[in-house]
Amino acid sequence: MANATVREGLKLLHRPDFARLFFAYLITYTGSAMAPIAMAFGVLELTGSARDSSFVIAAPIVAQIVILLIGGAIAGRTSRQKVMVRAELLAATTQFAIAALFLYGVATVPLLAALMMLNGMAIAFFAPSTVGFITQVVDRRDLQAANALLGAARSSATMAGAALAGILVAAFGAGTAIAIDATSFVVSALLLLGIRAKDQHRSEPVSLIEDLKIGWREFTARQWLWAIVLQFGVMMAAIEAVYGLLGPAIARNQMGGAVDWGFIAAASGLGTVAGGLVALRLHVERPMLVASCMCFFFAGTALALSGPAAVALVAAAAFIGGVAGQIFAVLWYTTLQTEIPASMLSRVSAYDHLGSIALAPLGLVVGGVLYEAIGYRPTMLLAAAAIIVPTALVLLVPGVRQLRGRAHP
Fold it and tell me: With 80 as the cut, is the pLDDT of residue 178 above it?
């Protein structure tokens, strides 16, 4: 894309409805970026156990796995916008409750895990709705620019939220950081409520089981789609363990603690901002081939932490991974939105999210157990291998290599 196309993309922010969606992303992801860091350090301070922390962080992912397909089916047959608003309010309620447990000194691992499962249910309803809702806010020709800008909002928020979390946890504790996260969900819900979206393409009313079968047929009919989701199922188990548990544990025990990890996470966020700017200019003929190659860079943070290297080097690896991750995300979502029928987007997206996170709880738990059993260095090297090997294998799939993009009709 030329510079003129970048300027055209940025003009989307002058449209009130897209601007509301953009700032909803910015606000909610700022709070959300704080929560995992605050939760990881909060549980580590509470029990001193990486294994306990892994159970709490895995709880919302388990809930997502159980609920995601239902969330996608409901989003496809009702209003995506209303589903998103209600999901944000549920997330706010659970986060306020978690913050209160920490602030009043009554937090326990079972209580935190239960509340995090409710928070995971909110995500399970929100995530499948989002992919389809973007197509109701912008035109098809603007999808890549919209995905890049929304990705930049999410990335800027991740960078700011991660840095803020490190400072707040170090200064005031986990409760304050999570309370701010809860407030962000409320503000996001109000912004989403004010969007005037285009009419939603809804499927004919059928039973929930039939809805799930239709979505499954759409999902499995595309080789590139299920192959990359299968790759991500393995890869995300490792990434979730690195960023959700092992990285904070290594920072606490081998580095400078929450502030250092906040700096590393912020570098990853800054990388995704840079990746979003690159994606605004990007026009590739084979989007899934390019997107899959980006995944190799995700292993850099795990490899750097296996030393562990100096904080600046780990942050540099996280930055590069962030750039690659954002390019992948923009190409992935734009391809979904242009290749999948509009009425099927939420259901297919639900299978996408489900497959991508299905092994994440196992990755967290196994990561916590291995960390305490064999040490951080072998554990991080295994995590890097779990990213590199499936990425190499997915490049052998013809559909991944050969799919040609239709983002610019």
Answer: yes
